[in-house]
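subagent[fold] <- orchestrator: predict structure for attached chain, return tokens only, no commentary.
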Amino acid sequence: MTRHACLSLAFSRVLFACALTVAAPAWAQEPDPEGSKDHPAFSRLPGYYITSYDEQEFSVFEFTLDPPRRVEGHYWNIQYAVNEGARKAGALQIGRNYTSLIKQRAGAVLTEDLDSSGGTSVARLPVKGGGLLWLEVHVNNSGELYSLTIVEEQAMKQEVTFTADSLAAALTASGSVAIRDILFDTGKATIQPSSAPTLALIAEMLQANPETVLEIQGHTDNVGTPASNVALSRDRATAVKAALVKAGIAGERLSTKGLGDTQPVADNSTEDGRARNRRVELVKK
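subagent[fold] -> orchestrator:
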């Protein structure tokens, strides 16, 4: 081969390499909205950017299960879209990337309803300290868009203290108030002494609002049989009524009801969830 031919061949190779570079351009990364970020436990899929971000220290989300499950706690909703020119992932591929990660960490996939066009998966993961992290992956447009809704289940940090006036206002606004500061001995209807300030507050509210009539509802966790839980919750409601009557409230203004474990507001598989389910509710009649 002549020197001229060698130079031509080398130049041709350079042109071919450049042609390959031009034929496969890198996609441009769209900027995420200011203040947005991936959840600490879950990265985004390559080629996607954040279009919407909402984080709330305490909120509620109804996960797509049968029946639906309302979970309260630290809340995130992060929505992603594929970058222009980037290769989108399939709907099942997106869902499985997240739910497989949950399974690898000893979590559980609760439902998977995904096809080529999109759909939803829900999974749950135990976290340090005994709580649960809930995840819902929702995919649209065959994988062009997807969202993660994450709730780290936990009780709300109480930062506002009820007064008699605010308790009356809450009852007027919503019709019911859950009271978790009335505590009982385990498995009994004996009210613990630490509950006295809360009972005094309820009595003060009733004395200031003589037209108010209440149903006192008792609720338990799911430890024990359904029948025994109904009986226990009924006895606890009756004990609260007795304490209020002793404080000077007319008994005919107070009725009682035991609902046992039939109306949980949290997951009974965790201690925190069971503690939140054990409550007294005041319902305005």
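orchestrator: received. Logging for downstream: Residues 48-153 form a domain with the TATA-Binding Protein fold (CATH 3.30.310). The first strand starts at residue 48 and ends at 63.
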